[in-house]
Amino acid sequence: MKKTLFNVAALSFFISCGNPQSYEPLKEQKQGQTVVASKWKKVKDYLGLKNKQTTPLEFKQDNPNHKKLKERLEKEWLGQDFTGELVSFEEFGTKNQQENSIFYRYPQTEGSNKKPEELEAKLWLVSYRKKPCAENDTFIHHALVSIPNQSTETKKPIIFFAHGNDQGISSKNLASSVGENQNTHVIVAPAFPGEPVLKESSLNLTWKYKNENIYQDKKSGESLPWVNDSDDLLLIAKVLDDVFTKDDSVKNEVEQNLTQHLNDKVLFNEDGMLNKQLFGTSRGGLSASLAVAKTGLFNQKGRKNDVPQFSKLTILSSPTTTTAGNFLETLEFVIKGESSLYDMLPCTKRLKEVFQDFRDKKGDDLTELEDACFEIARRDLAFSSPYLKEAFHFSGEKEKNIYFLFHTQDKIIKAENKEFFEYLTNDFKNIVKIVSFGDEDSKNLKFEFHLTKKFWSESLTTDMDGEKSPANILSEIFNS
Q1: d(Cα 263, Cα 156) in Å, to the nearest integer?
Q2: What is the fold, at CATH topology level, of the domain defined by 83-321+385-479?
Q3: pTM for the complete prediction?
Q4: In this predicted model, what pLDDT tens digit does every residue of 33-67 receive, in sequence order?
């Protein structure tokens, strides 16, 4: 309905301008809309999607199109090498150099005169890259590393954090997402390729950032949402695994510096590998899920040593699939390249660019259609969820491997994604736990954007109506 009203209003405005040449542009626009609508129908037919589909696409082995996509997906994933190396490890400089790398918990209410409280952790910046690489290779990956000031009595798993927005990673974004868990856990947060590391977050309702906040221009690579985000998580996890399994006598200065800062704070498994967990919010939740799915595929093919292993996956307010519900409508707008209210969601603009060639291609080209459907499949749990169970080799009644967290008032992701996640993981529900927080009558939380400063500052630092906040829930999961 909103889409129709928008189009009518736009058309009325166009005609009211009295442009005598208006007929031809409108005619061309209508022809263009017919073409992209036809291409959207071909995508639906190829994948087997229905209008108003209420359950995620069910992968069918006897469907030749599904089988072809699965074979292509596995070939791409198994052809990757996540071997890399550390480039640098340095203390992160904040805007005020006298407060170098100190974390703060920000006031709970915007406009509050209350000063931020210092957290018991400091921030570092780690740079890394894939191997082998040319000497002049400038594609350097970057991640923030939060390190507790003091060692705890019990060593803790290292947490790899996948951020939710598409504007990079900042100290505020990290601090507001994991709360006081920074005081006890080492947390590694990649910026993701094509996105900057920020000195400080200026995220607002439009999710923009000021260019002057980019930290030393640390932005490199191409942004391929969810595809190379998940690769980046695997790369940094594998790099750290390899560093810690090296003999001290062969470590370089950067590697020695990093291990000295982390050695007494991180937990190791019996095999000597780091005990690693993945945590992602919003867009990052899907990135983390895909990273685990890739690990599962490698494990299934007997290549466990080629990828990092994770003990837990925790995702909060995360999309799961574009093959059903509200996100099916989002996918339609993305394929067609049309504007919509969904443009405010992270990565939508970049995804429209991904499908640009498919929209522009004239005629019926099966290769272009298959490529477009593959771009959907490589980003969707409807195709990759079966691999999740292969990533974990232990489970029990009390301890789970996968946690899906959502707020009952989430107006962007909505609870339907919780239902979709349950549907997609039903075959291995014994290792999955769904956790909700908040309630429909909660008055101290106006939940409009799940990444706004107001939501995170309230929900992650306080208990709401006597219930556990996400920070408390995360602490229980990380420490179980």
Answers
A1: 11
A2: Rossmann fold (3.40.50)
A3: 0.85
A4: 666 889 999 999 999 999 888 899 988 889 999 99
pLDDT digits (tens, 9 = 90+) for 286-302: 999 999 999 999 999 99
* Closest to 74 measured CA to CA, from 280, 299, 254, 261: 299
The residue that leads in pLDDT, 33 or 154, is 154
CA distances from 274 to 241, 264, 268 (A): 6, 12, 4
CA–CA gap between residue 330 and residue 322 (Å, rounded): 7
* Contacts of 74 by beta carbon, 8 Å cutoff, 6+ apart: 297
Residue range(s) of every CATH 3.40.50.1820 domain in the chain: 83-321+385-479
